[in-house]
Amino acid sequence: MVRLKVTLCLITLCIGTHYNGVYPNWSSIPLNTQGQMFNEFKKYYVWAPEHEDDVQVNFKLKASKLLSSTFCDCRRENRMPGFMFLD
User: pTM for the complete prediction?
Assistant: First the structure.
């Protein structure tokens, strides 16, 4: 359970590091930006090359759900996500 929480925090960090626009959901984020987020994630974890595609699919699923739940929580609490900054 602790490992899952650490991974989710890391995915949030990867999203926040490259979240540089107004994207209402994961599928609105340009593919190259999604790729940058995944490459950031790869700096912290290692897996066998034959699992690369599976890991990337799981990363995108988790990131999509995490982004959605973060936005939902923030709307409910009337605040902005920590990775979004005002200009």
Answer: 0.83
